[in-house]
Design brief:
Length: about 375
């Protein structure tokens, strides 16, 4: 019996983030760049590079509650933008997961709703049921909101609480050193990329509108270098969902992974993120033993599962906001605790795991 293919949601760059949004309008929005937002009662991560000890820059923030659980859920991916750390690998990248119960936020929203008389807007199907607990493995999240709709969640005045929280963290960070990766950054200048919201699309929506023009131009250099009739191969693969025997006889084993990656993203080359909780990652190069030997969750000892990956198109969209920053990568694979564990009253982000795959032909994505 054939395995059921997990749905894939694509993240695309949307409008620029203006000002400094606060409250649920900030932490329920997914974005690239800017500064990390904090969930109520959970400190925003401010990690340092393990290599150069400088503050890491936020690459993406993804609001991704899981189904059938009462938790809001936020993932942050950071990278070191110092040129000397370009080859720092996992030491220069960090992923953090933050969660908080929906109950308190929903109670405040319900009170506001009664006062204003407005009905709650269903900004995403099953929103009230998203999350995970420490006992059950959550179901895959099929409807993920990456948008920037200010009406998505009604405003709740968390501003004062968050300010108090940040002040408290700063005092604690100054008085008591914390482990690397969770250390609070107190310096005035934190590296930032210009912030943009991330909107979402279903990959299946692109399957009927595949244009080969862009894929042809991207693969022209590849074709010339390898002497492969790439246009014929790509056309046949997209029209017949791939003839594996034909592919393997034409493409050298070392290039098969790269070709399949290019074929899969041809329908939507502007994707900057692929989300498929417990699904299959799209490898850019042949996976190493790191993929089969994922470290267990450091908090509950459970297994980790694939959640999302960052795509090559994101590299050129990360524009420096203050310090002439830049990062280079092929794809970043993010793995998180399968149980999405979160101890009661926990107040600091949990570090997760990522794998960096370098771009084998970075000029194709410029």
């Amino acid at each position: 019996m054939a395995a059921v293919r997990k749905p894939v949601l694509l993240g695309l760059r949307d409008a620029a983030v203006h000002g400094s949004p606060t409250g649920p309008d900030a932490w329920t929005a997914s974005k690239l760049g800017g500064v990390p937002d904090a969930l109520p009662a959970v400190a925003a991560p401010r990690p340092l590079c393990e290599r150069c000890r400088q503050p890491l820059a936020l690459v993406v923030q993804v609001y991704c509650p899981l189904e059938a659980s009462p938790f809001h859920r936020l993932l942050h991916v950071f990278a070191c933008a110092c040129p000397a750390c370009g080859d720092g690998g996992a030491r220069s990248w960090k992923v953090f997961r933050s969660q908080c119960l929906q109950v308190r936020e929903e109670a405040a929203r319900d009170a506001q709703k009664q006062e204003s008389g407005f009905a709650a807007e269903d900004w995403c199907e099953g929103a009230d049921d998203w999350g995970s607990d420490t006992e059950e493995v959550p179901s895959p999240q099929l409807t993920l909101d990456f948008g920037n709709d200010s009406n998505s969640v009604k405003d709740v005045d968390w501003t004062a609480q968050l300010q108090d929280l940040h002040l408290q963290d700063a005092v604690q960070g100054a008085a008591h050193p914390v482990p690397p990766g969770e250390q609070m950054v107190l310096s005035a200048v934190v590296p930032q990329f210009l912030p943009y919201y991330i909107c979402v699309a279903d990959e299946d929506d692109y399957r009927d509108f595949v244009s080969l023009d862009h894929a042809h131009s991207l693969l022209r250099d590849y074709q010339q270098r390898e002497g492969i009739a790439m246009e014929q191969l790509l056309s046949q693969s997209l029209s017949s969902d791939g003839d594996e025997k034909y592919e393997k006889t034409v493409i050298k084993s070392g290039d098969q992974m790269f070709y399949k990656f290019m074929k899969r993203i041809a329908a939507c080359q502007e994707q900057i993120l692929r989300y498929s909780w417990s699904g299959e990652p799209l490898f850019l190069t042949c996976p190493t033993s790191k993929v089969t030997e994922l470290p267990a969750c450091s908090h509950c000892g459970g297994q980790r599962t694939f959640e999302f990956q960052l795509m090559p198109a994101l590299v050129s969209m990360l524009k420096s906001a203050n310090l002439g920053l830049s990062v280079e990568f092929g794809t970043i694979l993010v793995y998180t605790c399968e149980k999405s564990c979160w101890p009661q009253n926990h107040q600091t982000p949990m570090e997760e795991y990522c794998i960096i795959q370098e771009d084998p032909d970075e000029l194709l994505f410029k």
